[in-house]
Amino acid sequence: MTRLRVREATKRYGDNTETVDVFTNLNLSVDADEFVTLMGPSGCGKTTILNVIAGLTPLTEGTVEFDDKSVVAGEFPFGYVFQEPRLLEWRTVGKNIEFVLQAVDVNPSEYDSHIDSVLTRVGLADERDSYPQRLSGGQRQRVNLARALAIEPELLLMDEPFSSLDEVTARHVRQDLLDVWYNTDKAVLFVTHDMSEAVALSDRILFVDREGNLFDEATIDHERPRDFDDPALRETETRLTRRFFGSLQ
Ligand SMILES: Nc1ncnc2c1ncn2[C@@H]1O[C@H](COP(=O)(O)OP(=O)(O)OP(=O)(O)O)[C@@H](O)[C@H]1O
Ligand SMILES: [Mg+2]
């Protein structure tokens, strides 16, 4: 079942004198339990695509549909993991999560159990009372993920969430993400520059060119759960890297 559908979307910045079309007539969809990744050169519009879906910036033309209903962008249950964890430094990890629960329809009597369960899912149960500043980068990114998961979104938007982490930490957090995803079957729209990460995580990769057009698409049908070190994944990565970077000017 299609969960998210972006139809004939155009995003234009600027005024009457000078305008920039970040993308024009863009179409994409994500199924209910699908993991879809956007890849493309810097500045091609990946963050803008996530932002229009999240309703952080309006579309110039086109529609966003959720469960086959046209929606005001942002008005459906989504979680957004930004590239940099935007944590509230003056609140504990638990209180950071409580903050987002207050914005949705969760009964305050359930906050405690909810916070514990979501922190356990990302391996941070022991850090509930810690302040963000004493956490490592990987732990902060896990809190970021936990916060997006806490509201039990039907769609998870993730903008290069692991790009600032060292490779060892990134592998752990990627595995956390996949474990959560296997258990909840939510739709994910993920952005990365890293082909190996895209191949390890995705069902489908959408390639965006410098003009913001989706010019190619690859289905990744390696069996799950996947072993990140599986040579077959490396082969796919090499093949897609050639195909993708070979066609970019
Ligand atoms: N508020 C804005 N006003 C005008 N132009 C903007 C605005 N926000 C983004 N842009 C332009 O839109 C284009 C796409 O930006 P966007 O941040 O979506 O790219 P990106 O693909 O996410 O890049 P990166 O990989 O570097 O994160 C860029 O050319 C950028 O300059
Ligand atoms: Mg970006």
Protein architecture, described:
- InterPro entries: AAA+_ATPase, ABC_transporter-like_ATP-bd, ABC_transporter-like_CS, ABC_transporter_ATP-bind, P-loop_NTPase.
- Keywords: ATP-binding, Nucleotide-binding, Transport.
- One of its GO terms (molecular function) is ATP binding.
- With 249 residues, the chain is α/β, with parallel strands linked by helices.
- The protein folds into 2 domains: 2-76 and 154-247, P-loop containing nucleotide triphosphate hydrolases (Rossmann fold, 3-Layer(aba) Sandwich), CATH 3.40.50.300; 84-153, no CATH class.
- Helix content is 34%, strand content 26%.
- It is built from 7 helices and 10 strands.
- It has a 6-stranded mixed beta sheet with strand order 6-7-8-3-9-10, with helices on both faces. A 4-stranded antiparallel beta sheet has the order 2-1-4-5, covered by helices on one side.
- Strand 1 (2-14) and strand 2 (19-31) form a beta hairpin.
- Helix 6 packs across helix 7 (231-247).
- The longest helix is centred in the C-terminal third of the chain and has 18 residues, at 167-184.
- The radius of gyration is 18 Å and the shape is globular.
- The two termini are 35 Å apart.
- The mean pLDDT is 92.
- Bound molecules: adenosine-5'-triphosphate and magnesium ion.
- Residues 46-47, 159 line the site of magnesium ion.
How would you concisely characterize the structure shown here?
Pfam families: ABC_tran. The two termini are 35 Å apart.
